[in-house]
Structures are given as structure tokens and as C-alpha cells.
Amino acid sequence: MQYQISSTFSSNPQSLFSLVDMAEVLRPEMLxxxxxxxxxxxxxxxxxxxxxxxxxxxxxxIERLLRVSSCKVTVVDSATRALQYLGLDGxxxxxxxxxxxxxxxxxxxxxxxxxxxELLKKIKESSIFREIxxxxxxxxxxxxxxxxxxxxxxxDFLLKPVKLADVKRLRDSLMKAExxxxxxxMHKRELEANDIYSQLKRAKI
Amino acid sequence: xxxxxxLIKQSLFDQGYLDEQFMELEELQxxxxxxxxxxxxxLYFKDSARLINNIDQALERGSFDFxxxxxxxxxxxxxxxxxxxxxxxxxxxxxxxxxxxxxAEGCLRTFQQLKKxxxxxxxxxxxxxxxxxxxxxxxxxxxPK
Lengths: 205, 145
Known about the structure:
Structural class of chain A: alpha/beta
Pfam family, one (chain A): Response_reg
Strand content of chain B: under 5%
Number of strands of chain B: 0
Strand order of the largest sheet of chain A: 2-1-3-4-5
Radius of gyration of chain B: 17 Å
InterPro entries (chain A): ARR-like (IPR045279), CheY-like_superfamily (IPR011006), Sig_transdc_resp-reg_receiver (IPR001789)
Shape of chain B: elongated
Oligomer: heterodimer
Number of helices of chain A: 8
Largest sheet of chain B: none
Strand content of chain A: 5-15%
Number of strands of chain A: 5
Domain Response regulatory (chain A): 48-175
Shape of chain A: elongated
Helix content of chain A: 40-55%
Largest interface: A-B, 16 and 22 residues
Keywords (chain A): Nucleus, Phosphoprotein, Transcription, Transcription regulation, Two-component regulatory system
Distance between the termini of chain B: 16 Å
Protein name (chain A): Two-component response regulator ARR5
Number of helices of chain B: 6
Radius of gyration of chain A: 22 Å
Structural class of chain B: mainly alpha
């Protein structure tokens, strides 16, 4: 029998069930912490990628690459618009943007106005979004530029034209990271369940 | 008909008008998106027409703002690369070299050549896509042999 852990435990688990029900539910062998993470994709949302590029052609191209790789895509045409989308443009503060789920940002380096590098810096300065991996794309293979971006915390630096293989590699490594986070969360909940069960047993329910 | 389409495509590659990037674009086509390459191509020619216009105007003014010209050409080269427009891309590179050398004469000459290549490619691709549509959707999604 498989139990939905997330619906069973709230911040105050004792309130949801009678203690007898609780003891039954929490018997460790009743909890089927599935090791099958191939269900991850169906139980989790698709990876959501924010792509930033001032070139119409490149926007269409990167969008297609990402869709073919089973990602949800939002494309914007400038760093300024990217900041607006993330709520980092100073207009409303980050109020209301905490729920915005972005898994990856891919940005062109050379853009008029704000460059991809400057966008990278702004994202890394943000308490909400600094953990989001940022990938820089550039048509120019300039080593100091690459170094600068990586030093500023870029996840990766891709030479344009971006290949489908590049996108798939990024997606796979992100999925693995999400999988690890998911597994850690499930493990943590299993430990919590064990703990509560032991307590109830000691209380001789 | 389909064989004709395949031959035309092959010759575009053989003559250097298109490079592997065009094949990458074709790989992204599927039954749900059978016209992706044609759509990208249309977008490219619309965008590059605008750039050509801007550069024409800048050159006509006579004042050679090499930084601005180089900036236009950077965009032009970028989108030409993304679609696999090999010969156009080569002319873009040449133009940028002349910009950096501050060689106005070279820029003008190269730009004429670039416009020619651009126009030739557009005609060839329009012809190719038209035939491909007539031949049936499957042909465009396949790599050349």
C-alpha cells in the first residue's frame, strides 16, 4: 500500500488522525517510500526554463530545443524583461514571486542594454533566485569572458549555436539534482514517520 | 518529386550555401511541427532584411560608424549561424574584419557581396521549401543522404 506522505503529514501531524489511526498508518512497513523515481517526471512538474535572447531567430531556436527536451519554456527578449518576469526589477520587490518556479535560466551574453553577464550578477544577488542555475550562451569563444561568467557563478557556458545535446545534458543534470532533492525529502519524512511511530509505541497506544 | 527535393537540398550543402546547423534544425522537426525549419527561415529573412536596411542607411549616410556597423553585423552573423547560412556568415565575418581595420572600402565591397549571397540563398530556400511542401511533409524532416 502506498501512502501519499505529503498529504499525511502537515506541520502538526497529530491533529489529522486519532492516535490509533496514526499508529496504524505509521507502522514503518506500511510506508512505501517508492524508490522508483521514474515517476518523478509525472509526479513533479516539467523543468521550467527561462530563456533570454535579443535575437528573434535564436529565441525561436532555443525555444524549440527546450520543448523537444520536454521542458516548459518562457522566452523573453531582453535582460530587463527577464528581471521583470522574476520580479527583480525593483518595481514590487519580490513579493508574489516566491512561488515562481524556475529551474534554469539560459541567457545570451551579448545583448543591448543589459548583458547576460549583468543579468547573471543580478540573479546571484537575489535571495530568492540565486540558487537557480544560470547558463550563458555566446557566439564568441572568448576565454576571459567565459572565466568571468563562471567566476560570477554561471552553471555553464555554451557556444552558439547551442546543440540539442547541450540542452539534454543540462536537463539530465538538473533532473538528477531534483531527484536527489526529492529522495532526500522522502528519506527525511521516513525518518520523521519512524520517530513518531516509536514515540507512539512507547506511549503504548 | 521527393527525389528532386532531396537533390536540391544536397546541392545546397555541396555548394556551401548551408552547413550542418541546417541539419540540426531539421532534426527538431516532427509530425507536430513539420514546418519548423521553414518558419525559422522566414523569421531569419525578415530579421536580416531589417538589418540590411539599417546597414544600407548607415553606409549611405557616408559617415562610417564602425562600432555601430560591427554591432549590426554581429547580429547578422549570429542569426546566419543559427540557421546554417554558411556563405552569408562568411561575408559577415569579412565585413567585421574590415570594420575592425577601419577599412570603409572593404566594408562597402563586402556588403555588396553579402547582399548577393543573402538574396541567392533566399531564392534557393524559397524554391526548396515550396517543392518540399508539394512533395509531402516527410521529405523535409529527413537528413540528406
